[in-house]
Amino acid sequence: MISLDINGKSYQVDAAPEATLLWVIRERLKLTGTKYGCGIGMCGSCTVHVNGKAERSCQMQVKDVQGKKITTVEGLPENHPVKLAWIKEQVPQCGYCQPGQIMQAASLLAEDPQPSEARIVEHMNGNLCRCGTYPKIKSAIRLASAGGKK
User: Fold this and answer.
1) Which of 19, 52, 56, 13 is nearest to 34 (CA)?
2) I want to staple 91 with a disulfide (CB 3.0 to 4.6 A). Which of 3, 51, 131, 136 is the partner?
3) Can you count the helices (H) and strands (E) in the chain?
């Protein structure tokens, strides 16, 4: 059994130690907000926070995250500034990449509450959006960093 702390809740999961965190989150725990995109850590759809840092869950084995605090998009409060900004700016089109985008943006704002435009682009660079909502994503991050006021 693998012990995991996800969204402030302790789970005992019957999974191989080498299983990916993404697979355990989605298939075993049914927290399906975290998405499978490419499976090689290049698109960012599977981004979660591990001890507050944005990480690709498709590239992490559950044995390596035992004892660490994991947060999925479901674990961010509904009134989180990034979630509110995403809604206000109407960021999603298809929405598939958005949980990973939100988690990446929340990680950025946790470490840099007032990021520059260049810092936003640099931090979000590894998260892909096939619908091309990048301008709205940047706008929502700026809105969240401004406390909801443009």
Assistant:
1) 56
2) 136
3) 5, 5
